[in-house]
Write a structure and sequence with these properties.
Blueprint lengths: L6 H27 L8 E5 L6 H12 L3 E5 L4 H14 L5 E6 L8 H11 L4 E4 L14 H9 L7 E4 L3 E7 L8 H8 L6 H15 E5 L4 H14 L9 H13 L9 H14 L4 H9 L2
Parallel strand pairs: 1-6, 1-7, 2-3, 3-6
Antiparallel strand pairs: 4-5
Helix pairs in contact: 1-2, 1-8, 3-5, 4-7, 6-7, 8-9, 9-10, 10-11
């Protein structure tokens, strides 16, 4: 097995750590707001998949000691608003950080994007404006029932959640467009709007409503971030020692372009494979399981 990292790999780890620390600082800033009287500033953290955006965000928030809740953003808008209704109902008298992980679904079209703009804007609220029956949420003593009943609109149609006590940290694989993006797309299309330019026009205000962190990464930075998490932050616990971690990381480094995936989860799966199959013939096992 490889016993030490090369000078290029060490440099990549330093480069990856710089990006990782930027992510951690953003999360810490969001968490610190909870203990202040200032208006919440929401954070939108963009980066390629597999770099541990949610993992690092959750770790930093845990270490801050503030109250937090994680919500998937890859669900229907109804289920998303329902989850916020429950969070808001259960935290009516205290501030809370809400981490929204993977927001592809709730940023899929103009309607849901506009709901997110309302959530992240001055009014800090989000609405579900279709008629629903409370009994479909469970019995009268259930939390969903009580939460929706509490936030029910006065006309009895739908419910509106006050989220002014929530600080949102959104981690996403979707890069938010700039204010100029829609116009640039249309200019290339002879000045005519397209589906892409229309969506960009709706999405751009999200950037203005959040402190946006764009974490673009080169291959070296992405690998360095992965290596730093494995070697210094407790990932790959199925490895018996650091040398086994370095062996896995070196394999990923040398096969980067042919790997099926290059996330922290990949390294942890490889650690389990090594633990189960042993060192003999492990390269063949890795080739079969993890290369395209």
């Amino acid at each position: 097995m490889i016993l030490q990292l090369s000078s290029k790999q060490k440099a990549a780890i330093k480069a990856g750590e710089l990006k990782r620390n930027r992510l951690i600082r953003a999360t810490q800033q969001a968490a610190n707001q909870v203990n202040s009287n200032e208006k919440p500033i929401h954070y939108y953290i963009y980066g390629p998949s597999g770099i541990g955006k949610t993992y690092q965000s959750m770790k930093a928030i845990k270490e801050s000691g503030v109250d937090y809740i994680s919500v998937s953003g890859n669900i229907s808008m109804y289920n998303f608003v329902l989850k916020l209704a429950i969070i808001g109902y259960e935290n009516r008298n205290n501030k809370v950080v809400v981490v929204i992980d993977d927001c592809d679904e709730i940023l899929k079209d103009a309607k849901t994007i506009n709901q997110m703009k309302e959530l992240l804007g001055e009014e800090s609220k989000i609405s579900y404006n279709k008629r629903l029956h409370l009994n479909q949420l469970g019995d009268e003593d259930s939390i969903p029932y009580r939460a929706v009943e509490y936030w029910m609109n006065s006309n009895g149609v739908g419910f509106t959640v006050d989220c002014s006590n929530m600080t949102f940290i959104i981690t996403s694989n979707i890069r938010l467009p700039y204010d100029s993006t829609a116009g640039e797309i249309e200019e290339k299309n002879g000045g005519l709007p397209t589906a892409r330019s229309t969506k960009a026009r709706h999405l751009a205000p999200i950037r203005g409503r959040c402190e946006t962190k764009d974490l673009d990464m080169t291959m070296e930075e992405k690998w360095g971030n992965l290596a730093s998490v494995c070697l210094e932050d407790g990932a790959c616990q199925d490895c018996n020692n650091e040398q086994e971690k370095i062996f896995i990381l070196d394999y990923i480094w040398n096969n980067w372009d042919n790997m099926k995936e290059t996330s922290i989860r990949t390294a942890e799966k490889m650690a389990r494979t090594l633990k189960l199959e042993g060192a003999d013939g492990i390269k063949d096992a890795f080739d079969a399981d993890y290369l395209k």
